[in-house]
Amino acid sequence: MFWTMIGAAAATLTMLSFIPQIARSLRTKSVKDVSPVTLFQLSIGVSLWMIYGAYRKDPIIILANAVTLISLFVLIFLYFKYGRLVK
Fold first, then answer.
1. Which has fewest Cβ within 10 Å: 15, 22, 27, 78?
2. What phi-psi label fits residue 58: left (phi over 0), alpha (psi between -120 and 50 degrees) or beta?
3. CATH for 21
4. Which residues of the chain have pLDDT under 50?
5. What are the Cα distances from residue 5, in Å, to 8, 12, 58, 66?
6. What DSSP element (H or E) covers 26?
7. What is the pTM of this model?
């Protein structure tokens, strides 16, 4: 039970980690400090974690990484949307 709570806490923090960057990008309409390489690299890593979670049949790993991947996709979308505004 203790280790499940640790995993759930880690998953929650990971899932919510990109929300502040998404909010800032939406508020400022700027992504000048966002690294696209980091976004794509992390997206691949999170996808691999999801595959691993599916192999282990671990819903915490699957859910946390699925939500994280969705937030990364939102940030990638904003990168391309607002990145074109910068000259």
1. 27
2. beta
3. 1.20.1280.290
4. none
5. 5, 10, 14, 19
6. helix 19-28
7. 0.85
Amino acid at site 39: L
Q: How many CB atoms are closer than 10 A to CB 87?
A: 3
Q: Do 8 and 1 form a contact (C-beta atoms < 8 A)?
A: no
C-alpha span between 84 and 63 (Å, rounded): 32
pLDDT at 20: 94
Alpha-carbon distance of 13 to 67, in angstroms, equals 11
Alpha-carbon torsion (16, 17, 18, 23), positive or negative: positive
